[in-house]
Each structure stands twice: as structure tokens, then as C-alpha cells.
Amino acid sequence: MKVLDFPLWLRAAHFFNFLLLSLLIRSGIEILSAHPRFYWNDHCTPGSEWLKFTRKQRPKDRLWTASDEETSFPSAIALPGHENLGLGRHWHFLADFAWLLTGLVYVVMLFVTPEWRRLIPTSWQIVPEAWHALLRYLSFHVVETPGAYNALQQLSYAAVIFLLAPFSIATGMAMSPAVAARFPWYIRLFHGRQGARSLHFLGVCAFIVFFIGHVSIVALHGFRTELALIVLGQTHNPHLTLALVVWLSGLTGIAAIHVVLWRESSWRVTSRLQTVSSTAGQVRADRSLMASTVQFGLRGHEED
Fold this sequence. Notes:
9 helices; mainly alpha
């Protein structure tokens, strides 16, 4: 039986990690639309934001409320888009739970198999070696380490898994009102909820930068060959066409999931509007019936 270089559980975790992070980012953008400004202080004084994603200007001649801050992001980038904070949080929390579960399975499998040896640094020598590898990549030269990650890959992958991911989880928890109410000392570690929110956003930016660098290095090493490695786990005589078909099928599946969730969100909104409309209509009918009954009673009383 042929031994695959990348085991199936690792390749599956790679796929689900990409899917869930894409859902987290899009639903996070929807949450951001409710207040598209970032602060390092909790008083959120107008003009003290360090970053904003809105062109709206606060008027000086009237009161400005939180609802005036909302910005409608299209469904092409936000999930579900168009100022739907409730469903944005719903999808964000579900994707977050699935992402945590995927990460837990990955870490457990990493340490119960020999895979950790390829990922975990065991010497400080990796730092200068990673710097040397970075310089070579910047000069568009490939750093070859057959059967293993090079120092830059090893250091960056380990940092993302064991530093950046926990950092994102920690800052995300600090934005929870329940955590803030029960553990106020925890929120102070991040200089308040707004500080945690800003750090959480920077963590997302770090994931995006890593993704761009990761794909760039894969392309530099030979996109089709590397694709066969991570999709099929094959290092010798890779089936490049099959790998490309499987990869495109996976991307199509991820896109389909995003569309289904958007349609599910649209259905929920429509259903709720119909329920509210039906309820409002029933209330109006009940009021009309009550008014008619009262008028009939009054007329009967006057005739008596």
C-alpha cells in the first residue's frame, strides 16, 4: 500500500479550515457593518477612531445614534449582507464553533502522529534559517527541503496554529458581554472591549496576509505539483490533472455552501417579515372586531 506524504486527516483539516475561515471573515464583515469604526478606547469619542470603513460623517446639528453608523455591505462580501446583524452573528458563532472543533481535532492528531516533527521547531537556529529563506523567496528563488518544510514555512505555520489562532480566540471572547460581566479583569487585558475588537480585526488581517504569502510560496514551488501534494498527498508521480479536478471541485463546493447560507438567510428574513406582517394583520383585524363589538354594544345600550 502506498504511503501518502500528507495523511487524509491533515488534508481534510486544511479544506475545512479554509471553508470555515472564509465563513468567519464574511460573517465578521456583516458584524462590522453595524459599527464600521475601530477604537483603542471604550468611550468611542467621535474622531478618536484609528480606522473606519464608512464615508458617513457625523452631523453636528443633531443627535447621532448607533443605528446611524450602520453601513450596508453587499452580499458579495458580507454574510448575509445588507445590514443583517442578527444573522451575521448567527453564522459567525456557528462557523466559530466548527472552526474550534476542526482545530482541536487537528492538534490532537498532530501530536498522536509523527506529523508534529515536521511542524514544531526544536531549535532556535530556525530563526536565522527562516530569515535566509525569506530573503531567497523575495529574490524569487525556491528553498528546497524534500520531504519537509523549510525553516520559513515551519516557523510561519507553527506561529499561525499556536499563536495567531489562540490570539484570535482570546480577543473574540473578550468582546462577549457575558465574559465582560463575569470576568471584567479579562477584558482589561486587552484595554477594554474596543481594544479587543481592534486586536481581533488585526488578527484577521494577519490570517489574510498569511494566506496570500502561503499561496505565493506554493505557486513559486510549482502550483500543480504542490496542489497534488496537499489535495491527493502524492509526492511521487503525482496525478496533476486529478489534483486540479479535485481542487476545483472543492472550491465549487465552498462557493455552493456560501450561496446556500445566503439563500437560507434570505429565506429566514422573508419568513420573519411574513410572520410579522401576518401578526400585524391579525392584530388590526382583532382591533377592528373589538371596535365593532364595542360600537354594537353601545348602540344596544342607547336603544334600551
